[in-house]
Structure formats: structure tokens, C-alpha cells
Amino acid sequence: MTTRIVTDSTAYLPTEVVERHGIEVVPLHVVVGGRDHVEGRDISAARVAAALREYTIVTTSRPTPQVFAETYQRLADEGATAIVSIHLSSQMSGTVEAARLAAADAPVSVEVVDSETIGMAMGFAVVTAAEEAAGGADAATVLDAVRARLEPSGVLFYVDTLEHLRRGGRIGAASALLGSALAIKPILAVRGGRIVPVEKVRTSSRAVARIEAMVVEQVHQGGHVVDIAVHHLDATARAEQIAADLRRMVPGSPKVSVVELGAVVGAHVGPGTVAIAVSPRPGEPLPETPVPSEASGS
Q: Tens digit of pLDDT for each residue in 174-201?
């Protein structure tokens, strides 16, 4: 059997990773000022950030079922005997629904997974799926590996303003923060597929410091080695500093990547956003930290 892996452009996997693992990426669309663009192909995150700053109307749309149907057919023609299709939270987009509609009539078995998350919290699971498939695993084994990776994963993020989330209708329970939005800097999380408020702080520097501390606490509590990605939109310096901090602070010597958010998520969170995706590695416990011994004669 040959199992192929499909995801969507909001995983924000680097191009070299996609090519190395043979992952199929179905793009979402971004409409800027009435003009349709394909994420990852003909519009950059910088263009979206500039449009948002200019108060240009920016909206997003899911891939159509037809696009998924064509993708599944092509992979079957290339020799796939099963497909695992992993996508961003159904609470944020209709992408999962479109994939399921196409899967119903696909020429091979297609398992569609609602990741209930976004960005590299999903992307790390997609890579795990591709690695399992490359090793000859069947679809059921790949699914087990994906779910084991997704379940403990999470995303924490900070936005300069809640306005963009409000406009896009993605704010959910965090809407309670709008009344005091000018006085606070919200820390948000993706939980159960939705964006929810976690804490409120007064400054961006405190928000970043608090998110870093929460990540360290999460890793200690989970007890497993993690992969981390620091996402951002038009906030490279801040993201690089957070990545450097986490490499130093998080146990287990994690690999910490800096990955810019693409146009679709960027359109909803706005410039200045930073997000930290944490994905534990099941079966890889943190190394024990040696307990310092007391100095002799003290």
C-alpha cells in the first residue's frame, strides 16, 4: 500500500519540507481589495500586512470540493492506495467540509482529519504523517500517529489588536475582551479548535514574557521533548528574539523554527502578531535534569 499525505496552506510548512516529504498542499484563497489570490503562490504575507494597515478589505475563502477531488484523483493516478488529508480547524474554516465532500467520491480511501488547530501545531503532525507513510505505514497507523501528535499540541499567541479577529468573525469567546481592548494586551490560545482568551496583560513585552513562561511550564508538565515554531506577521525581530529565548529556556534542547504566517491567517490576526506552536513528541521523554549537589564544606 502507498499512503499519501494532503494538507492545506495554513500548515505553513517550509517549501523544502513539503518537497522532501512529498506532501500535497491545497491552498486557501485571500481576497484583497476585491482581487482573488492563491495563498503561497501569488500573494505574500507582507502584502496582506500592508493592506491591513491601509484599511483595505481583506477576506479569505476555503478551497472548493472540486479542487480536493482533483487532488485526490491525481494522487490515485500516481499510485496512492490511501490518502490521509489533514486540515485546519473546522471551527475556523470550511476547508475540512470541502475535503470531506470530495473524499466521499474519491477513487481511493481518504481519511480527513480535523486538526482542531492551525499553523505548525498542525504542520508538525503532517510531517509525522509523511514520515510514517514513507516508512510503509498503512493509513490506520498514520492516523494513530497524527492524532497522538495533535492531541497534546497547542498554540499560544499575542495580537497587537483584536480588531482583525473581530472583522473576520474568528474571535469567539475572546470577544469578551473587546470592551477593554485599548487597555490590555490579550494572550490567546487555540483550544478545541477555537480561539479563546487566556490572560490579559498591560504591555506587549509582558505578553511575550508571559507566553514564553507558559510554554516552558507546558513542556515541564507534559514531560516530552517538543518541536516549537514561532509564527509572526511582520514582526521578524520579535519572533527571532522569542525563538532565541525558548532555545535557552525550554528543556530538552528543542529545535525552534521561525515561520512567518501566511496571507490567510495573517488576514485575521493582523500585523505584529506572534504565535508559538508547541508540539510534543510522543515516546520521547525529557532528559532528567541533574540535581545540583551542595558544595562540600558549606
A: 454 544 445 577 788 999 898 888 888 8
Picking from 189, 219, 207, 203, the residue whose alpha carbon sits closest to that of residue 280 is 219
- Give 282's contacts (C-beta < 8 A, 6+ positions apart): 148, 149, 152, 224
**Residue bearing the bigger pLDDT, 51 or 266:** 51
- Using the Cα atoms of residue 267, residue 269, residue 270 and residue 273 in order, give the sign of their dihedral: negative
CA angle 34, 25, 153 (to 5 degrees): 105
Q: Which three cell numbers stand for residue 283?
A: 515516546
pLDDT, mean of residues 14-32: 95
Q: What is d(CA 240, CA 246) in angstroms, rounded to the nearest whole number? A: 10
Q: How far apart are CA 5 and CA 168, in angstroms?
A: 29
268 grid coordinates = 485575521
Strands (E), the chain: 3-8, 24-26, 29-32, 35-38, 58-61, 82-87, 109-114, 154-158, 185-191, 194-201, 224-232, 256-260, 274-285
Coil, strand, or helix at residue 277? strand
User: Rounded to an integer, what distance in angstroms lies between the CA atom of residue 60 and that of residue 249?
Assistant: 36
Name the 3-class secondary structure at 137.
Answer: coil
Q: In this structure, how many other beta carbons lie within 10 angstroms of the beta carbon of residue 247?
A: 13
